[in-house]
Amino acid sequence: MAPEERADAARLLWGFERRFLAARALRSFPWQSLEEKLRDSSGSELLLDILQKTVKHPLCVKHPPSVKYSRSFLSELIRKHEAVHTEPSDELYQALAEVLTAEEPTHCHRSYLLPSGDSVTLCESTAIVSHGTTGLVTWNAALYLAEWAVENPAVFTHRTALELGSGAGLTGLAICKTCRPRAYVFSDCHSRVLEQLRGNVLLNGFSLEPSIDAWAQHPGPHTPEAERPRVAVAQLDWDTVTAPQLAAFQPDVILAADVLYGPETVLSLVGVLRKLSTCRKDQRAPDAYVAFTIRNPETCQLFTTELGWAGIPWEEVPRHNQKLFPYEEHSEMAILKLTL
Ligand SMILES: C[S@@+](CC[C@H](N)C(=O)[O-])C[C@H]1O[C@@H](n2cnc3c(N)ncnc32)[C@H](O)[C@@H]1O
Known about the structure:
The longest helix is centred in the N-terminal third of the chain and has 19 residues.
């Protein structure tokens, strides 16, 4: 294979791998490029490589996506193969037979590859909204904020981060794995979300601080050189948490992704940011970064207006187009940096 062709094939494989690991919609896969390649003699080999980078990927074998998803993916791969080859592929049929007999759990896994070669794997609900919460799946703004963080590790290095409305935990886990924070506190208000979040923290090889209260009272000792951050998951409702409870976490930086989805959440969020603005560590209030998808400009406008009323200055972080993670669909996103 010529070097150019090899680079093409590697790009195609990467496109399949990252989308499959994150269980992205099948229509977003580079099927057309695959069809073109399948017409070459190297086609069958390429299909086997795709199989290894998707259904048989070590991450997927250990933490599989939904059975329905794998089944649809393999059926499509077989269709593509049969459109150009008369001989059926034993390997593809064998892989399909394996998923046809598997049971469908209520949860599935999604994995996201990091530039370091490491990955974040999350157990998520198969439904976008379940148990009355949106927090059991990963939203685009979480990916967007994580991409920005990976590019700006100094914001987190040797610092304590407190995340509000962490949901499944993608942003925080990506930060913990790439930005060397001193400590990371995930938080949410919903009990199911918290249960899943704890599971995801453990799934990614971090241990949890046994008691958030004890930790808040005794935040050290911790050497700045330590490789692994201290990680805690806290039940924290923006409406009921108090300023002293927030101050006990001693955060240097606050994060929140996709938490602006209606006037009520905007008001609650600004309420908790106000309380956080009274927290002082080394005479400094924490910085805050809020990432969101611009679904409804009025909601975003309400947020900035309320920040103005609360006396919290903000600026928009320059937009990035890192595309480290595969997105489900294109949507406009923004990150605001707040000076609390
Ligand atoms: C759309 S999800 C976003 C989850 C995650 N940050 C992401 O982007 O994938 C919103 C999250 O905010 C949490 N949330 C909403 N209102 C809250 C409140 N008053 N206090 C704490 N968490 C809240 C929900 O439980 C949910 O996990």
